[in-house]
């Protein structure tokens, strides 16, 4: 949704179709939440499979625009022709295609505004065939003083008990940034599977903090933006930390790195990547003392092996424990033979991606099993 919402907001006055991946099995190419939208004029934005089934989803979307009735389709490898309507990778993909207009989706404006402003929110949609298919709740931390203290809820799934159960699960999923199908009894009873509800957490982009305003940092910032991170570059030297040198970054901050990081700890979670590229003890030792005590999912530091061992010695002398040091990835990046800033940025980004999924980072030609690994819950 985040990828397409800016394109589709102008369409909202008339009906368009929104297709969303709600479930994947085996080697499906996109994760739940991936979206594709089709306007009444036939314009397409986004993708649900990287090209495997888009043509059929487009046809379904045209039908949904015409009828106003939501549809769930399952796509898998075709027994007759793998290049027909199916996934040549052998996976399975469940896609919800729903109409969006002011009558069928009155909460869409609030959802689009939340995405645009970075306000966390969840959209819970019934995906079980039947009269409830397509009914939805939109749940977020309250900013208006809703009846449920601290929670703003719009819409209904058709049963008060079911609504209450889904709201509680959705709030937890907002906190963790997770998206998945949850099953309930018709009145929200746990341990039953009468109603399947797709809960999509729409959280702000993960954050990447790049410390050290050097050429390598500029390349890392570019790759970080390409991967969907909100990128902040920080350096104490104002002559280097400038918007002109880092045009792709969302923020460029002039401050001592450790002091800046200590002031934004509320923005650091398990989705956060901290890239320490200063390789100067007066910057990186106090910075890493703060960084290694955060919840950041990735903490990498640049430097030679000699620099790395000297850094470890200085950190131990500063009181950093062995458990904390075990969280440090140094020298940062995968062994790709990288030399240029751009190649080094790819090396670092590849390691961040692998760490996010606990993947082996080995060549796919030497591995077996699933290619598209699931992200670790955050």
Q: Can you walk me through this structure?
A:
The chain has 378 residues and is an alpha/beta fold. Helices cover 29% and strands 23% of the residues. The protein has ten helices and 16 strands. It has helices at 5-8, 54-67, 108-117, 160-176, 215-226, 257-263, 281-291, 305-317, 322-325, 341-357; strands at 16-25, 35-38, 44-46, 71-76, 92-100, 121-126, 136-141, 151-155, 180-184, 195-202, 207-211, 230-235, 251-254, 273-276, 298-301, 328-329. Strands 13-12-11-14-15-16 form a six-stranded parallel β-sheet, sandwiched between helices. It has a five-stranded antiparallel β-sheet with strand order 3-2-1-5-4, covered by helices on one side. Helix 7 (281-291) links the parallel strand 14 and strand 15. Helix 5 (215-226) packs across helix 10 and helix 6 (257-263) runs parallel beside helix 7. The protein is elongated, with a radius of gyration of 23 Å. Residues 78-84, 143-149 and 374-378 have low confidence and may be disordered.
Blueprint of the fold:
Blueprint: H1 5-8, E1 16-25, E2 35-38, E3 44-46, H2 54-67, E4 71-76, E5 92-100, H3 108-117, E6 121-126, E7 136-141, E8 151-155, H4 160-176, E9 180-184, E10 195-202, E11 207-211, H5 215-226, E12 230-235, E13 251-254, H6 257-263, E14 273-276, H7 281-291, E15 298-301, H8 305-317, H9 322-325, E16 328-329, H10 341-357
Parallel strand pairs: 11-12, 11-14, 12-13, 14-15, 15-16
Antiparallel strand pairs: 1-2, 1-5, 2-3, 4-5, 6-7, 6-10, 7-8, 9-10
Helix pairs in contact: 5-10, 6-7
């Amino acid at each position: 949704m985040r990828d397409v919402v800016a394109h589709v907001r102008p369409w909202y006055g008339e009906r368009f179709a929104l297709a969303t991946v709600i479930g994947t099995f085996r080697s499906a190419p996109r994760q739940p939440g991936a979206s594709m939208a089709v306007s009444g004029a036939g314009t397409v934005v986004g993708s649900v499979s990287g090209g495997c089934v888009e043509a059929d989803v487009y046809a379904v979307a045209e039908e949904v625009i015409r009828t106003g009735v939501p549809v769930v389709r399952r796509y898998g490898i075709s027994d007759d022709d793998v290049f027909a309507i199916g996934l040549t990778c052998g996976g399975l993909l469940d896609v919800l295609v729903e109409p969006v207009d002011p009558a069928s989706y009155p909460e869409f404006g609030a959802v689009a505004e939340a995405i645009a402003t970075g306000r966390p929110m969840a959209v819970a949609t019934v995906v079980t065939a039947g009269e409830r298919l397509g009914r939805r709740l939109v749940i977020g931390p309250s900013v208006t003083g809703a009846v449920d203290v601290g929670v703003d809820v719009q819409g209904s799934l058709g049963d008060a008990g079911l609504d209450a159960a889904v709201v509680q699960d959705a709030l937890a999923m907002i906190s963790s940034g997770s998206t998945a199908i949850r099953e309930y009894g018709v009145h929200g009873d746990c341990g039953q599977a009468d109603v399947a509800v797709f809960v999509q957490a729409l959280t702000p982009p993960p954050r990447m903090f790049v410390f050290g305003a050097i050429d390598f940092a500029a390349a890392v910032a570019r790759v970080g933006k390409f991967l969907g991170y909100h990128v902040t570059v920080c350096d104490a030297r104002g002559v280097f930390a400038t918007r002109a040198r880092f045009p792709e970054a969302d923020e460029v901050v002039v401050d001592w790195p450790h002091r800046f990081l200590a002031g934004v700890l509320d923005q650091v979670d398990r989705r956060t990547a901290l890239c320490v590229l200063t390789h100067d003890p007066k910057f990186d030792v106090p910075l890493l003392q703060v960084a290694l005590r955060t919840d950041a999912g990735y903490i990498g530091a640049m430097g030679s092996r000699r620099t790395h061992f000297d850094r470890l010695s200085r950190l131990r002398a500063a009181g950093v424990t062995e458990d904390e040091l075990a969280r440090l990835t140094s020298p940062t990046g995968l062994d790709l033979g990288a030399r240029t800033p751009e190649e080094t940025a790819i090396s670092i980004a590849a390691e961040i991606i692998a760490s996010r999924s606990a993947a082996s980072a080995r060549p796919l030609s030497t591995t077996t099993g699933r290619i598209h690994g699931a992200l670790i819950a955050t």
